[in-house]
Amino acid sequence: MRRLLIATILISLLLGACGKTLTSGKTEVTFWHGLSGPLGDTLNEMIMEFNREHEDIEVVANPISSYTALSQKLMASIQAKKQPDIAQVFESWASKYIESGVLASL
User: Distance between alpha carbon 82 and the CA centroid of its chain, in Å?
Assistant: First the structure.
């Protein structure tokens, strides 16, 4: 299960590596999520490992306090056209993002 989670996150990060390029030459990828506690700690460890292994990409995690807050913040950022490069979402939220035109078919 952990390998599947790691693989999914890494693939998402690689596919979503369309963030802004910093003056250092690194591409910064913003990632919003709602994980905390042990899962949040594991995610942070995986992000640190990814950043160490990919010197040209810097993933910047932004944990949001709750899934409700994450959903609301995502919708507001979409309307303002300032959404993150990657965000944790649930399938039940998908219709909102499809209607907004921000989900890409992979």
Answer: 13
Amino acid at 49: E
Among residues 50, 47, 51, 42, the alpha carbon closest in space to that of 61 is found at: 47
Pick the CATH number of 16-100 from 1.10.540.10, 3.40.1010.20, 3.40.190.10, 3.30.10.20: 3.40.190.10
Reported as a single tens digit per residue, the pLDDT across 2-44 is: 655 555 555 555 545 455 665 678 899 999 999 999 999 999 9
What is the C-alpha separation between 8 and 74, in angstroms, rounded?
A: 20
Name the pTM for this structure. 0.74
